[in-house]
Specification:
hydrolase; Uracil-DNA Glycosylase, subunit E; 9 helices; 38% helix; four-stranded parallel beta sheet; DNA damage; alpha/beta; two-stranded antiparallel ribbon
Length: 221
């Protein structure tokens, strides 16, 4: 598997790619892809770092695992390929966008247009075995993505981190809250959303308000 990230990330992540844990992780992932069906496709594993360039990063959304069903995962957290049915969490994200912004429910579940505007859609684990949720956890991906969050916190200013659910909220300790904005809510999954922890968080309008107040372009959600 080729480690393919946009040039803007190279300086930030080059040392990480050379560390023993990352080399072991890549060996594991290559073997998994050779022997099993895994998602996303190999050329999309680092998609988050190709669509969203470092200097343009404004917002960070943290997911946990890629989707493990056929044709769903495309390397961007919560996103699915165009034409694929929207998973339950994405349905609730889109419902909140429609309610929060007064817009129509989005038809296309591919969130690449968010990423292209500076939204880093980062899963904590970047690969998964088909039909086996969490199968690539604790192999090194979390060390890598935690480092990404930490380095973003150190190197950048005024980023907006959207932490949805207990797992993502734990990442707050990696972020300097004096330099960045942290918005938290329940997870958009039905279990959390139906208990009242997701709907009404207005994270999309709040994000755009912060961006505009700081002289930056709002996201077209």
């Amino acid at each position: 598997m080729t480690i393919s990230v946009h040039d803007s990330w190279h300086k930030l992540l080059l040392d990480e790619f050379k560390k023993p844990y990352f080399e072991s992780l890549m060996a594991f992932v290559r073997e998994e892809y050779a022997k099993k069906t895994c998602y996303p496709k190999e050329n999309n594993v680092f998609a988050a770092f190709n669509h969203c360039h470092l200097e343009e990063t404004k917002v960070v959304i943290i997911g946990q695992d890629p989707y493990h069903g056929p044709n769903q995962a495309n390397g961007l957290c919560f996103s699915v390929n165009t034409g694929v049915a929207h998973p339950p969490s994405l349905v609730n994200i889109f419902k909140e966008i429609a309610s929060d912004l007064g817009t129509a429910y989005p038809e296309d579940g591919n969130l690449a247009h968010w990423a292209d505007q500076g939204v880093l859609l980062l899963n904590a684990t970047l690969t998964v075995r088909a039909s086996e949720a969490g199968s690539h956890q604790n192999k090194g991906w979390e060390t890598f993505t935690d480092t990404v969050i930490q380095k973003l916190s150190e190197e950048k200013e005024g980023l907006i981190f959207l932490l949805w659910g207990g797992f993502a909220k734990k990442k707050a300790k990696l972020i300097n809250a004096k330099k960045h904005y942290i918005l938290t809510s329940g997870h958009p999954s039905p279990l959390s959303a139906n208990r009242g922890y997701w709907f009404g968080n207005k994270h999309f309008s709040k994000t755009n308000k912060i961006l505009l107040e700081n002289g930056r372009q709002a996201i077209n959600w």
